[in-house]
Design a protein that fits this description.
heterodimer, A: alpha/beta, TIM Barrel, nine-stranded mixed sheet, five-stranded parallel sheet, 18 helices, B: 13-stranded mixed sheet, four-stranded mixed sheet, 3 helices, about 5% helix, elongated
Chain lengths: ~575, ~270
């Protein structure tokens, strides 16, 4: 493989504590190395910013509900098609881009790893077919467990070991990466026309509460010692006053300590916190509770989170929180799609327009930024848009601009139609913090990589790590004349390397690299009871056979990368 | 106002996508620059000048630019798309999406027009001297934002699904329409001087529809209210007034439920 040396850039690497020093990054055989030979190709990064490839911890980019969005929103493709260019294939879509466009857009922004945040296990084959067709970026997928019949039956009887054995089996069958929980219990209750809006609402028939599901899954996750922690979308998303439910959920992690060999310290990752930080009793007195939420997160080291920033675009919401999507279509009267996934989960899809002229949307925008700016430890608070729920991932550079420039965000805040009411509903207007490039590297690289258990693999530029490197046309030594320069620079990286292959040059795709599928291979003690339960459920309830369930082989996972854990001695 | 005339000289084998034939795109350009604007024939990108002879320079702005399209453009799509001002005159018949998303100015088609004309139209005026196709003034596929402003006049007949998801503006059709008139309409006004076969205004929640001719089968969601005298385009007559679609959700305004109004001449 080729050798490269990226010379004279301003390097930001939280893994090694490098804060903008002018130095060189050497690449050999797909890895970062300390030195290369004289024949190495020189990349001139003078006057530019150099970071590790960014790591996306939570986005909906592959699988049946994403595709449902593509199918039922042809208008999302209108005027957003891109023609073939060089080796780039055509693409289409804005909030739900086609697979190829997804890979290209991430790579062009300097992202090299991304996690699909909700994989319905029964449709893992579809998820993996889309992952396979998304070029360049390494991807993993989180199967959903929070409304799964096996999990609820085992945890009702406190059978953590059986839950863990089932998780290990399912991760292997679906080539999954982590334990995802969406509206625990609530989505199953939706099958009965109900919901779980607090952590103590019992799930119909199963007679278990969301609190018991969450604690049980944390215990099973740590029993296995998985790379990532339990990753949760709590109950009561998106409702005024929901922050109380969020605090109750965060409290469930109290007393648990991470147990794993990957350097992960948290036991719970709370995703798209923006949607869970709402105060008020109705949409009229809707307000931010970001301060209360961040006080809690800042003081609890066993938690990590991502923001879910609203980008003020027309987008497509999609979640395994089926009841929420039904609630949303009742609010905006736009088209609604719903899908039930047998014993496992459900999903809903509704288009949404975050209009800057609507007070609630502008407050949601404020909350997302407020959360990131109130975070004391950028290694535990990551930037996302919960793509496409709060906005398309292609808007990350704009979110960075708002976070890195007080001027840019105040310009936006002060020109909302209901500016006075919006400013009064959060503390954003009084925050003068500007996220630094080093903090940005923590919030988009080192932090999410560590939370995912990938700290030794990506998110940093330490010799031995994968050579995922992004070089941006951004000179941190020069005074920032215009905040737009941030958005421009981070929208199209000058150079991007993925596992040592130069994939982007001056914003154009030049190579599609060797994209990998990340999954977790967890070994547990033989568990005949769980194996028998699985067999029985397939015979009695599933509409497919067990033999057709697994995502196996080259067609689904052509280039797997397994992280191994051994829980046989646990 | 400056006039640019484009005349079809070399007809395409496949359908031609010519969205740049629009006063906004032509504005400030010379005939030679206009001939360089790109078009697609199938997946092949080429220039307007390959197919059309271009004469005359455009005005400085769209408002000062008139485009006259001559020759056989039955296989040309997107004429006048997204125009915001100025004028477009098509002397013959044209294909899909003519005047789609137009927001101002005036477009006249002397012949017939195919489907999706004035899709998502926001303003301006579209006059079709022949017949119009399906989905006139409707929303784009999947979209819920149909014609929201402006005026359309069809001197002949119109096809099916006219005014689907219409939210505003006015449409007059001198002839007949086909099925599914104003499905999902949430505003606007449609006057049909001829007949409408069936499925008129299904799922309509707001807006006005006036039919001078017959409706073969009335939607079951429409309820007869009373007979009213109306003056429509200079004609005063008695109309039967129906409200609907009663199977849909309806907004309340000032304590009153808002319905779609359907008037049929008695």
């Amino acid at each position: 493989m080729a050798e490269y040396i990226i010379k004279n850039g301003f390097v930001f690497d939280p893994v090694q504590g490098i804060k903008g020093d002018k130095s060189d990054v050497a690449i050999k055989d797909g890895k970062i190395v300390s030195d290369v030979s004289k024949s190495a190709k020189v990349i001139d990064a003078a006057g530019k910013t150099v970071m590790a490839g960014a790591v996306e911890i939570h986005a909906h980019i592959a699988g049946p509900k994403v595709n449902l969005g593509r199918i039922y929103r042809p208008e999302d493709k209108l005027f957003t098609c891109t023609a073939t260019k060089g080796i780039e294939r055509t693409g289409s879509g804005n909030s739900i881009p086609s697979t190829f466009k997804t890979g290209y857009e991430y790579a062009k922004m300097g992202y090299t790893t991304a996690m699909e945040a909700a994989m319905p296990p029964m449709f893992s084959r579809h998820v993996h077919e889309e992952i396979r067709d998304t070029p360049i970026i390494d991807e993993g997928a989180f199967p959903v467990f929070g409304n799964n019949w096996f999990v609820m039956e085992y945890l009702k009887n406190n059978e953590v070991e059986n839950t863990a054995a089932y998780i290990a089996w399912l991760l292997r069958a679906t080539k999954g990466y982590a334990v995802k929980v969406v509206n625990p219990g609530g989505t199953e209750a939706w099958g009965w026309g109900l919901n779980c809006l607090s952590i103590h609402d019992p799930v119909p028939y199963f007679d278990i509460t969301p609190a018991e599901i969450v604690k049980g899954l944390i215990e099973a996750n740590e029993y296995l010692g998985l790379p990532h922690s339990m990753h949760i979308h709590p109950n009561n998303l998106g409702n005024p006053g929901c922050y109380q439910t969020t605090l109750d959920t965060l409290n469930l992690a109290d007393g648990y300590k991470a147990k794993n060999k990957f350097g992960r310290e948290q036991v719970m990752h709370i995703t798209h916190m923006q949607f869970h930080s709402y105060g008020g009793e109705n949409w009229g007195n809707f307000e931010s509770k970001a301060t209360e939420i961040m006080n809690f997160v800042n003081s609890h080291k066993n938690l990590t989170m991502d923001t879910g920033n609203v980008t003020l675009d027309e987008t497509t919401t999609m979640t395994a929180d089926g009841p929420f999507e039904h609630h949303l279509t009742g609010l905006n009267h736009l088209k609604w799609a719903n899908c039930d996934v047998e014993l496992e989960t459900a999903a809903g899809v509704v288009p949404y327009i975050y209009s800057p002229d609507i007070k609630v949307c502008a407050i949601q925008w404020s909350i997302g930024l407020e959360l990131a700016l109130l975070a004391k430890d950028p290694m535990r608070c990551f930037i996302t848009t919960d793509h496409p729920n709060a906005g398309p991932f292609t808007r990350y550079p704009r979110v960075f601009k708002w976070l890195m420039s007080e001027k840019a965000r105040n310009e936006r805040l002060n020109t909302f139609k209901n500016a006075d009411k919006v400013i009064a509903a959060s503390t954003l207007g009084s925050i003068d913090r500007e996220i630094t490039l080093y903090e940005l590297a923590q919030m988009t690289r080192a932090g999410p990589a560590k939370s995912l258990g990938l700290a030794n693999i990506c998110g940093g530029l330490k010799p031995g790590m994968d050579a995922d490197v992004a070089v941006y046309d951004f000179n941190p030594d020069k005074p920032l004349a215009d905040p737009e320069m941030i958005e421009t620079a981070f929208s199209r990286a000058a150079f991007v390397f993925k596992s040592g292959v130069q994939v982007v040059t001056h914003g154009d795709i030049v190579n599609t690299g060797h994209k990998r599928t990340l999954w977790v291979d967890a070994k547990v003690k033989d568990n005949p009871q769980v194996m028998r339960d699985i067999k029985e459920k397939f015979l009695k309830y599933y509409s497919m056979t067990q033999a057709n369930y697994e995502a196996l082989g080259h067609h689904f996972v052509p280039n797997p990368f397994a992280l191994e854990v051994d829980a046989t001695q646990a | 106002m400056e006039t640019v005339t484009i005349t079809m000289k070399n007809p395409p084998v496949l359908y031609l996508e010519a969205e740049h034939v629009c006063p906004d795109e032509f504005a400030g350009k010379t005939a030679a620059q206009i001939a360089e604007l790109h078009v697609y024939e199938g997946n092949t990108k080429s220039t307007l000048g390959k197919y059309f002879e271009v004469s005359g320079n455009a005005g400085a702005t769209a408002a000062e630019t008139k485009i006259v399209v001559k020759g056989d453009v039955k296989r040309v799509k997107y004429l006048g798309m997204k125009m915001s001002a100025g004028e477009v005159v098509v002397e013959g018949s044209t294909d899909l999406y003519a005047g789609a998303w137009m927001s101002g100015g005036k477009m006249t088609v002397k012949g017939d027009i195919q489907a999706f004309a004035a899709t998502g139209m926001k303003g301006g005026e579209l006059i079709i001297e022949g017949n119009a196709g399906n989905y006139l003034g409707a929303a784009y596929r999947g979209d819920w934002r149909g014609m929201s402003g402006g005026k359309i006049l069809v001197k002949g007949n119109a096809g099916s699904d006219v005014g689907m998801y219409m939210t505003g503006g006015e449409m007059v059709i001198n002839g007949d329409v086909d099925v599914h008139l104003a499905t999902h309409a949430e505003g606007g006004k449609i006057i049909v001087k001829g007949n409408a076969p069936s499925k008129v205004a299904g799922q309509m929640v707001e807006g006005d529809i006036i039919i001078f001719g017959t409706i073969d089968v009335m939607m079951p969601g429409f309820k007869y209210v009373d007979d009213v005298d109306l003056e429509i385009e200079g004609t005063t007559a008695k109309f039967a007034h129906y409200i609907g679609d009663t199977g849909e959700r309806h907004k309340k305004r000032k304590g009153q439920m808002v319905y779609g109004n359907l008037y049929q001449k008695i």
